[in-house]
Amino acid sequence: MNDFYEQDGYRQTIQLGIEAVRNFRPGLTYGKASEQERIARLQDELEQADAIVVGAGAGLSTAAGFTYSGERFERYFGDFAKRFGIQDMYSGGFYPFPDEQTRWAWWARNIYCNRYVDAPKPVYRELLQLLRNKDYFVITTNVDHQFQKAGIDKGSLFYTQGDYGLFQSVSPTIRKTYDNEEWVMRAMEAQGFVRDSDGMFQIPRGGVRMSIPTELIPKCPDDGSDVTMNLRADDSFVEDDGWHRASAAYARFLREHEGLRTLFLEIGVGANTPVIIKYPFWAMVDQNPRVTYACLNYDEAYCPKQIEGQSICVQGDAATLLPHLES
Fold first, then answer.
1. Is residue 201 within a helix (H) or strand (E), and if so which, with residue range?
2. From 89, 100, 121, 230, which residue has the greatest number of CB atoms within 10 Å?
3. Domain extent at residue 188
4. pLDDT band at residue 299 under the 50/70/90 scheme
């Protein structure tokens, strides 16, 4: 690994991954060992590794119970589903709502459910237990920040795609982000949600409103312009100072641990954004015989044949697999 990581670890590792994958020999493999043998080998690598780099995707949050449809959706968005025909939280983010009051009522609920509520299952805390007493770093495409809620050190975390807890101005001249927790809580209360004895918002017997007052529509505190979510969708995504510090910290961690026995532990990363985590992990394993790649995935646990000898592919739900590794 070279010093070019220092300037922009995010883009440089992506470039490394893309270039490496182009040169890989054709063919992917799911591995040949039994499931028991794979788990035993992964357990050994977790214990023996000098450092662990965790790469987490949406599958980890799904395993933790952060589903975008089903009971969670019906509980908080049943009225939106009935009126607009919206079927899940993800697609609702793109719905052409009739006005800003309704759109921001939707987003207040969406942010609340996926940022300020604890995950239904303890998957993130179980992962943290595996990392205890280890030198580790986490890179994730998830935007729910459940790593921090579980106790992961923020200085060891790179949230590449943004944060449900942040707004950004639509003005391209303002490259800053703004915490939205206070606004979210006010917007939930304005719709009629009430807190229970645990401090969680619930729908009262009389129901809730599907809009917020006009004066509660969020605006940029610097110039009064409109705001949007700090989620990477196009080139307008704001990479603020915190984002750049995290990118540099990731680059620094990779550089400082080069040559050590390192485990690249990928969990729940699918095929939507492989260039951020999966391809760079493959490339860094291919370059160093002392490192190991482990892929935990519900149904896409595979690796290139070129690094099969350094890889552990375990198929299954992280909520089921992680407790096995703790024992």
1. strand 201-202
2. 230
3. 71-118+181-217
4. confident
